[in-house]
Amino acid sequence: MKFPPSLPRFPWIYCNGLSFFVAKLRFSWYIGAKQIKGTILVNKKEKAKAIIDILKQRYDDAACALHYAKDYELMIAVRLSAQCTDARVNLVTPALFAAYPTLEAMAAADIADVENYVRSCGFYKHKARDIVLACQMLLTDYGGKVPGTMEELLRLPGVGRKTANLLLGDLYAVPGSVVCDTHCIRICGRLGLSTGKEPEKVEQQLRKILPPEESSDFCHRIVLFGRDCCTARNPMCGECPLTMYCKEFNPQA
Ligand code: SF4
């Protein structure tokens, strides 16, 4: 939608003949394209709202599936959940949090020792190192608290946009927090709410259409929906309450 490619700024340049006609055409096309884009956006917003309502009925509770009691424990659990299931993380964290019951203890932990606790989560060397270094940074730079802005969170070792959005949504209830994980990318693509597979692009698309105060809960519910209905390999379309909105099921949706 980059048309018109080069509209000169001064209208008197178009003051005669063909140039004027071409400029007028370009301008009409430009306005038309904007209107279509606007209509699509409005339609997608309405569709997102309808999907949110159905998911709310199906999943009353939109809480994060990871178990934690303290803010830094959620940060650690989310780090461990990369390329791993939440269920596996919930099996591992009780022993880890018991061995290092405070932020100070976790920051002072021997990384090799932490590796032993998190080995079954995969990528355990990276994860153990990130956990200890991030806890150290919480103490040195953030007064012992998980910070509440995207910029600050992204400075923490092992924290990317997905983790940061989850922490903002769950710890600070920041409106517009979109946790763009594999379930979210897959299902929102199938539903026609987003296109592509790049997390940051999907996040931006969803941020435009989801009501900001609903976005964090929506993402938690999408994870639940992705586990028990719209799975990656064998989606259970026969039992799905969203068929009427699904482009995978009905390309006209
Ligand atoms: S109809 Fe099938 S593919 Fe579409 S959202 Fe439902 S389960 Fe997923």
Fraction in beta strands: under 5%
Number of DSSP strand runs: 0
User: From the helix content, strand content and strand pairing, which structural class follows?
Assistant: mainly alpha
Helix fraction, binned, reads 55-70%
Low-confidence stretches: none
In quaternary terms, these chains amount to single chain
Radius of gyration: 23 Å
Shape, principal axes of CA atoms: globular
- The topology string of helices and strands comes to HHHHHHHHHHH
* Cα separation of the termini: 23 Å
Count of alpha and pi helical runs: 11
The biggest sheet amounts to:
none
Chemical compounds bound to the protein? iron/sulfur cluster
Question: What key phrases describe this protein's structure?
Answer:
binds iron/sulfur cluster, mainly alpha, 253 residues
Structure description:
- By secondary structure, the chain is mainly alpha-helical.
- The chain is 58% helix and 0% strand.
- It contains 11 helices and no strands.
- It has helices spanning 17-58, 71-80, 86-99, 103-107, 111-118, 124-141, 150-154, 161-172, 182-190, 199-209, 215-228.
- The mean pLDDT is 90.
- The structure holds iron/sulfur cluster (SF4).
